[in-house]
Amino acid sequence: MSEIKRYFIEEMNRRGKAGEAFAFLIDFDFQKPRLFRMEGSSDEILWQTPFHRNFQEKEIENKPFLWETESITAERYNDAFYKVQKEIHNGNTYLLNLTFPSRVVTNLGFEDIFYRSHALYKLFLKDRFVCFSPEIFIRINDGIISSYPMKGTIDASFPDAKEILLKDPKELAEHNTIVDLIRNDMSLVAENVSVEKFRYIDRIKNNRGELLQMSSKITGKLPADYAENIGTIIAKMLPAGSICGAPKKKTVEIIKAVESYERGYYTGIFGIFDEKNLDSCVLIRYIEQTNEGLIFKSGGGITFLSDCESEYNELIQKIYVPAT
């Protein structure tokens, strides 16, 4: 464990034990984690969760919306996809979340996007990235920990889209795998782990249409002293299973070799501890500022049942801004 990671976990535990409220941001590799005060941090970061936010709403000019994207080529994606399939057939992974960056051109600034977007979670790290995530990572309420892995996506405009998604054998295999993985992760920190709700569907509106997303709810009971171990609990469950795959350690190694780019804060997590309870999200639906312009990072889960063209199209479908 790196010294940065060790110190961060210990500091989260200290604040939890002291009953201090704080917000936290952890990147995919756990190399640049950040802690923020609940008050007085809005000059650097803006956030909104279903329960907390650190800003006042402001009126944004309703101007025409330019949105142009340039994804990686189908050939580049195909090459990575078949490398993943080889690893699957060799037994090194059985679910891998494959992602890539796409270039975006828009007339909206990050602040415009942040205020315009309607999402379960919103985050704007100034001059770095904006994120509008639909995916809960974990919640802790009165000692009950819950996770909501999101796996399974379809264009809502398809006739009978919900039924197609629920009956798709690839999507079912992927979802079953991630539910088992999260159950195992949660068993490292909690007792009486169970699947409370299996495969429910959310509808997500965006500037390109609507998507259906499939999730499940898994719960467990934490020990009475969970607050003073809040950092340890989070660390044991990272990286989030839905954005890496299974088995975790080997799958992350394959991801780094195949993707050949830095995820950074994309597919990391953001959360808030309010002195007793915790709420957090997975950082997906994410636009980053780079020296070459804006980059939108997206992807999806690959299993032995995956179709390359469908997975490539899903990566493109996820390049959106939530409808306002």
Secondary structure elements and their pairing?
Layout: H1 3-18, E1 22-26, E2 34-36, E3 45-48, E4 67-70, H2 74-89, E5 95-106, H3 110-116, E6 121-125, E7 129-133, E8 136-141, E9 144-147, E10 150-155, H4 161-167, H5 169-187, E11 191-206, E12 209-221, H6 230-236, E13 245-246, H7 248-259, E14 269-273, E15 278-282, E16 286-290, E17 293-302, H8 308-317
Antiparallel strand pairs: 1-2, 1-14, 3-6, 4-5, 5-13, 5-17, 6-7, 7-16, 8-9, 8-15, 9-12, 10-12, 11-12, 14-15, 16-17
Tell me about this structure.
With 324 residues, the protein is of the alpha+beta class. The chain has one domain: 4-Layer Sandwich (Anthranilate synthase), CATH 3.60.120.10. It is 29% helix and 34% strand. Strands 1, 2, 8, 9, 10, 11, 12, 14 and 15 form a 9-stranded antiparallel beta sheet that branches. Strands 3, 4, 5, 6, 7, 13, 16 and 17 form an 8-stranded antiparallel beta sheet that branches. Helix 1 (3-18) crosses helix 6 (230-236). The chain is globular and about 50 Å long.
